[in-house]
Write a structure and sequence with these properties.
GO terms for molecular function: methyltransferase activity. The strands form 2 sheets. The chain has a 7-stranded mixed sheet, sandwiched between helices. Helices cover 27% and strands 30% of the residues.
């Protein structure tokens, strides 16, 4: 059974007892997982762009795959937030950092949602953990069932039409325009996480999947003009 390597790395870094470097591994290729930068930067060091994004998230909010709880912590200061992650150690990290309502859960469990939210946030490209566009449409339907009639999904991905393959860790091409994949696993202090494969898709491909789910992509935002990373708002 795979280890909870990523979650343990978050927990150890938060507690100040790091045992080793946490890395992504893809065959012989190794890259830094950037635990601090991705999950644990204190709010007082956040750039204005991040604060603007967090401020746009309406409550009540469901934080899907919350990691160390950075978004949940900020948003719960002004409204109700429910957060979950498949990693028990990520949940421990979020709870110890002060997230009030957080539990271990899997976004693919359809019975997970028992309330309605104004925002369902899935930030971390985890919606790409689907094998096909059809499965992504099914996931969007499931997540949308957790929203109110005026609620929205907020998801993110990397746009293959902007990716430089040699500079993108774990990149796998796809012959279909606007699609690619990313493959790696996490290693930390003798622990080995599960093999992960992410479906990467352009905004146009995301619109196709959303349309199949009866939804619309209402807004797409790239942090910079050259960035391949983007966030999308779906209703």
């Amino acid at each position: 059974m795979p280890d909870d390597a990523l979650g343990q790395a978050m927990l150890d870094r938060m507690r100040g007892c790091v045992r080793a470097q946490c890395v992504y591994r893809d065959g012989d290729d190794v890259g830094d997982a950037h635990i601090y930068e991705h999950y644990l930067v204190p709010q007082e060091r956040w750039p204005d762009e991040k604060w603007e994004f967090v401020g746009s998230l309406r409550t009540p909010m469901l934080d899907v795959g919350c990691g160390a709880g950075q978004h949940a912590l900020a948003v719960q200061e002004r409204g109700d937030v429910v957060a979950f992650d498949v990693s028990p150690n990520a949940v421990r990290t979020a709870r110890e950092r002060g997230v009030e309502t957080v539990f271990v859960g899997d976004m693919f469990e359809r019975s997970l949602c028992t309330s309605q939210f104004e925002t369902v946030l899935a930030n971390g490209t985890q919606t790409g953990l689907v094998s096909t566009l059809e499965h992504l449409a099914d996931l969007l339907v499931s997540l949308d069932s957790c929203t109110t009639s005026k609620g929205e999904l907020v998801v993110d991905s990397y746009d293959p039409t902007r990716i430089v393959p040699d500079e993108f860790f774990g990149y796998r091409p796809d012959p279909r325009p606007g699609l690619a994949r990313r493959t790696f696993h996490v290693e930390y202090g003798g622990l080995r996480g599960p093999d992960l494969e992410f479906l990467l898709l352009s905004p146009d491909r995301l619109r196709t999947a959303a349309g199949a789910a009866g939804l619309d992509v209402e807004h797409v935002h790239y942090p910079t003009t050259k960035s391949s990373y983007y966030r999308a708002r779906i209703r």
